[in-house]
Amino acid sequence: MNWAERDKKVIWHPYTQMLQSEVIPIVKGDGAYLYDEAGNRYIDAISSWWVNTLGHANPYIAKKISEQLTTLEHVIFAGFTHPKAVELAERLLGHLPENQKKIFYSDNGSTAVEVALKMAIQFHSNQGLPNNTIIAFDNAYHGDTFGSMSVSGRSVFTHPFQPYLFDVKFIETPIKGKEEVAFNQLKETINKGNITAFIFEPLVQGAAGMMMYEPEILDKMIQYCKSKQVITIADEVMTGFYRTAKFFATDYLNEKPDIYCLSKGITGGEMALGVTSCSQMIFDVFLSEDKTKTLYHGHSYTANPLACVAALASLDLYEQIECGENVKRIQEKHANFLQYIKHHKQIKDIRQTGTILTIELNIKGVTSYLSEIRNKIYAYFIQKGIIMRPLGNIFYLIPPYCTSDSDLDYIYSCIEEFLNELEVV
Question: Is 139 in contact with 124 (CB distance < 8 Å)?
């Protein structure tokens, strides 16, 4: 019995209809490549759910984790601390905007968002202020816990849980042509009163199909929120750590949010870790002789030393000149291909922010996540030795920064071939 057969007997996979599931057993990773049990090689064009920014099995990160294993593998983080957690917090704050002063650790992106929501809600509660409503963008995705689902767009993912999700005011995403509509909706919602926070994915909405918008309109929205004492939360889980060609997507902004959510690329994809940072203003409201004003949130693996070391090692690599050069190289390669292919008949839209390149197909019929075209795209590129994970009629490149020019050229050529074959069909 092979690994796929053994898997099917015992494992339930995420986002997968198990009645129809087929899995590929991966036994090895190396840089931008993954290898299956038959020895086939795949280019990981999506960084394995956007996390492996620095490639698979990075030897430098692995060495640092190995060294930490023989020193301290875990310690409770309530009443204790450890050097790697302190060092990581210090270094992260060095990259975050100056208004960010405190780091709260968790386990993943969803919990980082969950913590941010709790901070914002309790910020108002601790002061005896009304805090009835959170504002979010249509089609947003912030995670799969109940709080993070509540501030995510209503979809097939959230439908069974609708009765259990708290009320959120959704406004248009300010994509090109909808900037003023979105801003006016934000203003109108805030002016009705009792708004707790505004949460957003800065510049790129990941699971919505890599929808992109400009920093100027987000600046305007954050500025208005601040004028009305509405807490702003930047979900940088996907966009952080150079995905947009700047360290954080909010580095394109003049206005800086009150709270940040980080995960995915924070460890280069090597370990699970979530971080929520906040301003001094947020933190100070939780300081009280009244213990009920404490932020009662935590996880068993909070600030796990191995994860902290993986993040510190990743920061070492992010801060090297070579990393910045690779990001710029990929950004330029994407831009050149975009110009080459953008007029193809099968392309409805093509867009890019930093190292993210997105193609939206011009097809008839269902274009949602459940569209059959999604399966067709996935199967086509797997046969070519490329891992793509389409969102309906939308597919994208978000490669590790170590991906070579020749591998990018190969991916681009396969995309063109796919579009040409699709045209014939």
Answer: no
Sheet hosting strand 168-171, strand order edge to edge: 100-106, 274-279, 259-262, 231-235, 195-200, 133-137, 168-171
Domain map (residue ranges) of the chain: 3-57+324-424, 62-318
Correct CATH for 62-318 of 3.60.21.10, 2.30.30.520, 3.40.640.10, 3.50.50.60? 3.40.640.10
pLDDT digits (tens, 9 = 90+) for 371-415: 788 889 999 999 999 999 999 999 999 999 999 999 999 999 999
The percent helix, strand, coil of the chain (3-state, each to 5) is 40, 20, 40
C-alpha torsion angle, residues 417, 400, 389, 420 (rounded to 10): -10
Question: Which residue type is seen at 168?
Answer: V
For 137-158, write each residue's pLDDT tens digit: 999 999 999 999 999 999 888 9
DSSP class of 148: H
Q: How far apart are the C-alpha atoms of 412 and 388, rounded to whole Å?
A: 12
**What Cα–Cα distance (Å) separates residue 366 from each residue in 16, 314, 362, 425?**
19, 40, 11, 17
Write the single-letter amino acid at 44.
Answer: D
Q: What CATH number belongs to 3-57+324-424?
A: 3.90.1150.10
pLDDT band, residue 425 (cuts 50/70/90): very low
Task: Give the residue ranges of DSSP H helices in 192-266.
Answer: 215-227
